[in-house]
Amino acid sequence: MANTPDPAVGTPLRVAFALMLAVLAIAPFAVYPVFPMKVMCFALFACAFNLLLGFGGLMSFGHAMFFGTAGYVCAHATKAWGLQPEFALLLGIAAAVLLGGAVGMIAIRRQGIYFAMITLALSQMVYFFYLQAPFTFGEDGIQNVPRGRLFGLIDLSNIMAMYFVVFAIFVAGFLVIYRVIHSPFGQVLKTIRENEMRAISLGYDVNRYKLLAFLLSAALAGVAGSIKALVFGLASLTDVHFSMSGEVVLMTLLGGLGTIFGPVVGALIIVGMENYFARLGSWVTVAQGGMFIICVLAFRRGVIGEISHYLKKPL
Amino acid sequence: MDSFFGVPMRALFGQLLVGLINGSFYALLSLGLAVIFGLLNIVNFAHGAQYMLGGFCAYFLLSKAGIGYWWALAIAPVAVGIFGIVIERLMLSKLYQLDHIYGLLLTFGIALVVQGLFLNEYGSSGLQYAIPDELVGGANLGFMFLPKYRGWVIVASIVVCFGTWFVIEKTKLGSYLRAATENPSLVQAFGVNVARMITLTYGFGVALAAFAGVMAAPIYQVSPQMGAELIIVVFAVVVIGGMGSIVGAIVTGFVLGLIEGLTKVFYPEASNTVIFLVMTIVLMIKPAGLFGTQK
Question: Among A22, A65, A111, B156, which residue has the least CB neighbours within 10 Å?
Fold first, then answer.
């Protein structure tokens, strides 16, 4: 199975990928580049979350802790320690992985709904830590983080340079996730999602697979959080708050759980809504709640899931 | 003896009282969650919002209709309970065949809608709700000062928790409920209307949240976000106690409130996180929770 050419790579998948690349390449010339950068940060975050829930069946309700932790560490490393962006990014990711390891080992002791509640509770603990820790500057967050020069060469304060760096990182992250899903490891993960008992009886060390999936997802969420901190020059409590965890769940659900492109589309919709309807304040929260309700009751496949169902091809 | 490990006795008892008050709310809320989860297999994320609705209901009754605290204590749970029943009939009942995660997500969406609407209308600052005349003032117990209202909250929640436990564990109605938790189709075959029982159980769990909300109104003020963060702590309480158990929910609720109060005395920085820390330790030692059984 693993050695044969991947049957999932159909024409629609290639077309969709090419379309995504084309749109993202043109976007900074059509709209203010910060918006598509924000979309890519959240799309990568949602893809990381989708790897865990859509393919591993593990519902984490605290994923913002990895996103936000990486952001804080990356911002602190550039601002307080004056590190170059590539090292700050790596440190941010490392912090997310470390936290992912600790949280993962505790959370995988329970399944299903408990897993969601435990990750939520642990993320709230992490939130309180950042609320009180002096280096995060509490409600203000770490502001005016310099973007610096990538590898000492590329000046990221140039918005186009920043854009294409984010673009490259996003596509790389996206391809990593695609590769993981279609690897033997990904197959085992799907087996565990479908029937954990069966996977155990087949001799798989289920907890090791789950933990690895959790670590991978935390790492990729860390990538997303780090670049977001660089793009906006800001790391704040919003990014570790549980409502951020809720948002990433909604993005994934809306776009299509367990699809390749769903989280990207979901992120586009949610970030777009927040960007253009920001003045409506808490109505955005109401709308998001409404979307949750509609998605769960009548639209469980999500946007991409529906299209893929219609085409009868994976997307 | 005026101090205990360098902490004045009065401060210690004061924080223990605060802990016991918080514990009363943890117990009531986690009890409602446990009752709902037992029969519906749904983690009711809207519990915090329903608690908030209870508080607002009391506030409206007083400010719009001049109806006082004691009537609010009866009316608000019924009103919010009916709201819960409508939600169960219209939405939750469509999800029983699906993965339990969808129930969590749906109720999370409901919480967002309800809290967002109230936030839009009333802003995030709290609304004052006066302590009822009968319970103003307090008693000096010698070692500490006990405000009457706080004493009432503790007593009332113990009574309600005990009553709920008694109904579920010791009466015939409760035995139907427990049987339906074990095997709904068999109970249905014996001629019990399980679907209606599920609806009423959800309504009852929601009513418990609203009851807690009314009791909380004079202590914490009424605000749209009053239940948003609380529900996460209650989730942790439920994980510690073990979801299946009624007694577990009640006992862990009170005990964790006390632990939190003690932490405020000895190491205030950790008072926000101590419950989550306890949860972590319990998960390491006994993943099913203190009173739970691993399925």
Answer: A22
Three-state DSSP class for residue A89:
helix
Residue with tokens 């009822």: B132
- Provide, rounded to the nearest whole percent, the portion of chain B with pLDDT above 70: 98
Considering its fold, how many domains does chain B have in total? Answer: 1
ipTM: 0.90
State the best of B91, B105, B245 to mutate against chain A, taking most chain A CBs within 10 Å: B105
Structural domain containing residue B76: 3-127+143-285
Distance from CA of B115 to the nearest CA of A (A): 8
Q: What is the CATH number of the domain that holds B89?
A: 1.10.3470
Phi, psi (degrees; rounded to nearest 5) at B45: -70, -20
CB-CB neighbors (< 8 A) of A282 in chain B: 116, 119-120
CA gap B218, A260 in Å, rounded: 50
| Residue B133 lies inside a defined structural domain of this protein | no
Tokens of A35: 């918006």
A198 touches chain B (CB under 8 A): no
Report the candidate in A304, A268, A288 with the shortest Cα–Cα distance to residue A37: A268
Q: What are the backbone angles phi and psi of residue B140, rounded to the nearest 5°?
A: -90, 115
Q: What is the mean pLDDT of residues A288-315?
A: 91
pLDDT tens digits, one per residue of A172-183: 999 999 999 999
Neighbours of B125 (CB within 10 A): 8
Chain A residues whose CB is inside 8 A of the B276 CB are 121-122, 124-125
Kindly determine whether residue B91 and residue A124, on different chains, have CB atoms separated by under 8 Å.
no
Which two tokens mark A56? 């591993």
Per-residue model confidence as pLDDT tens digits over B120-173: 989 888 898 988 888 888 888 777 788 899 999 999 999 999 999 999 989 998
Confirm whether B269 is domain-assigned: yes
Question: Is residue B134 included in any domain, yes or no?
Answer: no
Length of chain B: 295
